[in-house]
Amino acid sequence: MKQNKYDESGFFTNYSQMPHSVGGLEAAGEWAEFRALLPGLQDKRVLDLGCGFGWHCRYAREQQARSVIGIDLSENMLERARAMTVDPNIEYQCLAIEDIDFDNGAFDVVISSLALHYIEDLVP
Where is the Methyltransferase domain (predicted)? Predict the structure, then answer.
């Protein structure tokens, strides 16, 4: 079953108060290591699986990514991401990771931070 605790009011309220929710990537304990794994993003088409508040999407554009699509199953997460984003080259879609259906080659870089553990079966 696709998990979506983030649209439960109490859960989302508590999540929204966590340091990385308030302070962004620099407040996320894993950010330094995650950033070191990223390739150059300039002129790349980026997909962010489980984009949450859109921090990685906005980072990709700061690094001059051509376009970014962030997907998340939570309407609450996407509402916050949209409110924090002023960039026509970032698009957010409400979609489960398991349900993505983009053409092969649609993206140059696919990222996901702290989201794949929600998928029950990673092998299609």
Answer: 46-121
pLDDT one-digit tens code per residue, 93-118: 999 888 889 999 999 999 988 665 55
What CATH code is carried by the domain that includes residue 52? Answer: 3.40.50.150
Taking the C-alpha atoms of residue 19 and residue 32, their distance in angstroms, rounded to an integer, is 15
Q: Is residue 124 part of a domain?
A: no
Task: Compute the 3-state secondary structure of the chain and give helix, strand, coil in percent, each to the nearest 5.
Answer: 40, 15, 45
Closest to 19 in 3D by CA, of 29, 11, 33 = 29
**Distance in angstroms (rounded) separating the CA atoms of residues 16 and 32:** 21
φ/ψ bin of 50: left (φ > 0), alpha (ψ from -120 to 50), beta (otherwise): left
- Kindly state the DSSP code that residue 41 receives in the 8-state scheme: -
The Cα–Cα gap between 41 and 59 comes to 9
